[in-house]
Amino acid sequence: MTARQHLGPLAVTSLLMGMALVLAWQQASTHSLLPAAGRPLSMDETVFYFSLLPRMATALICGAALALSGALFQQILRNPLASPTTLGISAGANLALVSAMLVMPGLLGVGRDLVALMGSAIAAGLVFLLGARRSFSPFSLVMSGLVVSLWCGALSAVLLMLNERYLVSLFIWGAGSLSQQSWAIPLSLLPKLGIGLLLALLILRPLAVNELGEAGATALGLRVVHLRVAAVVIAVALAAFVTSAVGVIGFIGLVSPTIARLTGARRPAPLLIWSTLIGASLLFLTDSALLLAAGVWSDLLPTGAVTAIFGSPLLLLLLPRLKTRHRVVQASAPRHSRRVWGSRPLLVVLALAVILLAVVLFFGRAPDLSWTLLPPDLWSDILPLRLPRIVAAFGSGAILAVAGIIMQRLTGNEMASPELLGVSAGATLGVTVAVFLVGVPGLLGQLGFSAIGALTVLGVIFMLAARSGLAPERVLLAGIALSAMVDAVVGIIGASGDPRTIFLLRWLSGSTYTATMESALLALGAAAVLVSLCHLCRRWLDLLPLGPSAATALGVHLQRSRILLLVLAGLLSAAATMSVGPLSFVGLMGPHLAAQLGFLRAREQIWGGALCGAILMVLADWLGRSLIYPYEIPAGIVSALIGAPFLVLLMRRSG
Predict the structure, then answer these.
(1) Radius of gyration for the chain, computed over Cα atoms and rounded to the nearest angstrom
(2) Is 1.10.3470.10 the CATH classification of the domain at 388-654?
């Protein structure tokens, strides 16, 4: 990397650090910097030396550690969407903390950091256990991490919703809080960051060789599997130490390496170094601005959530510099899938869907909590209550799965899902505005505000990516940036303790509580029309994963196909979000479930994925309203709890 190429990341780092230092100086100027000798510290000086300065140091250290962790993940997994949250580290820590708070609160007195660190270690261990079957390939590690992360997150959400009195404290910790009362945390984190940085520097040369690809690196004598394990262990340790100390700060690990790449750092050594410096500067700037703006209320606002407010605009500003390259999804066909499922696997899945619909419609819990078939004399009373929810779940599940298929095939990224397009975030923002403007909105209000928010965000993304011909990488990053900003707003609102956040939490979890027959039929009709339109685009979906050059050579008009497919994905996501709320798991895992069952070509995967998503959502809705009757668990959470183990089973069978 030449000196001229260093100017980009150097300029960005200098700008971020300069702004942070200015804000920090304004904050520090209200305190006495040098206490008089021979007298005790005043209260103001005590706060400065044992709260403000440790907090600044913690921001720098945590930002550097998370950015380095994210850079290692993205480099070794060769995936620009990889981050410390990819392997479930943060989700594992959060689940451990929630469980300890509810079951054994005495453990938190012994050490909250130790509890969170144990949760991170267990989550990482599960990921490695699942990835070992496929020699720790990037695809297997990414998929295993997503499964563990979603499962831990769903279980945490269930425990949280059943114990809402802990909502405020968990919201703050779950979004990352840098509040300090001593130098204990920064002094304990500093040597850990130093060791992690030293170990990362030791594997720089193998990382450079790994850039040649697995075949080329192996030919030069590099043991790729050993390098992959070493890099992931270092990244996991860095993220786990930070998460156990200050909570979940996820955006830094994703955006810092991306900003470093966009400003010119592309080789492993410059990428790791500049990512670390940018991450430290970005988190320091965020926390300094938060301290100055919020004052005494800064301890109640999660710095991790606010980070997106500063990082997202910077990412959007640098987006035109992105040099796009196509990634090929590494999923392979599962062995013996056709033999297991017969010559007509689609018909088998369709039959399973019909059987499931009959079961969930007529079988459930009685008022005495027993399991029973619905008596015919109660059909007229109960079926009008059950049927809309079942129809809405079926249609929404199918819609989200097909939207995920489009996103993954269009971008060539196995981590792509409908919510990364930003539509779900826009709908969430619309509903959030409605909640704080008109109170808890009715069904029409939710539909209207969510539609306005979804269409607004989709329009902004199209404008940002239009100059690149709607290159998938730019669309994804624009969607991630806007989604992160919306999540930051929702996280700050959630940490405020406002009672209306309970409604938002339930809506974000994805449920069919408010489904009516009209809205359910609307979702089912949208599924039929939009999935049929996707079927007409099956040739594009088969050819685009081959790469832009190959697709163009085979007669695909890139810009036209991308526009139409992105519009379809946006309409699918918006239709599902307006019907049952944002449901990330179905859109992410539906395509993988279909592929693991043997639906590999676009035509098969569209219809097979739609049925898989519909089955998953219907089953999740039924279990959610039956397992702890008369209480209910949102279908979005249950779909993650039941879908993740099933996907793991299929991955192990095909490994």
Answers:
(1) 25
(2) yes
What is the distance of C-alpha 651 from the center of its chain? 21
Task: Compute the distance between CA of residue 493 and CA of residue 501 in angstroms, rounded to an integer.
Answer: 7
Query: How distant, in Å, are the alpha carbons of 14, 23, 287, 410, 643 from that of 18?
Result: 6, 9, 14, 39, 47
Retrieve residue 583's tokens. Answer: 């449901």
Other CB atoms within 10 Å distance of the CB of residue 192: 17
Task: DSSP for 22-64, please give it.
Answer: HHHHHHHTTS-SSPPTTSPPPHHHHHIIIIIHHHHHHHHHHHH
CA distance 238 to 432: 34
Place of tokens 């997106």: 308
Q: Where in the chain is the domain with CATH 1.10.3470.10?
A: 3-25+45-313, 388-654
Query: Residue 358 corresponds to which tokens in the numbers above?
Result: 């009959």
Please give the CATH superfamily to which domain 3-25+45-313 belongs: ABC transporter involved in vitamin B12 uptake, BtuC (1.10.3470.10)
**253 in Cβ contact with 83 (< 8 Å):** yes
Angle, helix 268-294 to helix 3-28, in steps of 10 degrees: 20
For residue 67, give every residue at least 6 positions away whose Cβ sits within 8 Å of its Cβ, in sequence order, or none: 252, 253, 256, 257, 275, 276, 277, 278, 279, 280, 282
Percent residues over pLDDT 90 in the chain: 12
For the record, the structure tokens of 645 come out as: 């183990």
**Quick one: which of 88, 617, 130 has its CA closest to 393?**
617
> Is residue 574 a contact partner of residue 458, using CB atoms and an 8 Å limit?
yes
Backbone angles phi and psi of 86, in degrees to 5: -60, -40
Residue 258 contacts residue 103 (beta carbons within 8 Å): no
Residue bearing tokens 């993954």: 408
Tell me the pTM.
0.72
- How do residues 300-358 score in pLDDT, each as one tens digit? 566 766 777 777 777 777 766 665 554 554 444 444 444 444 447 888 888 999 999 99
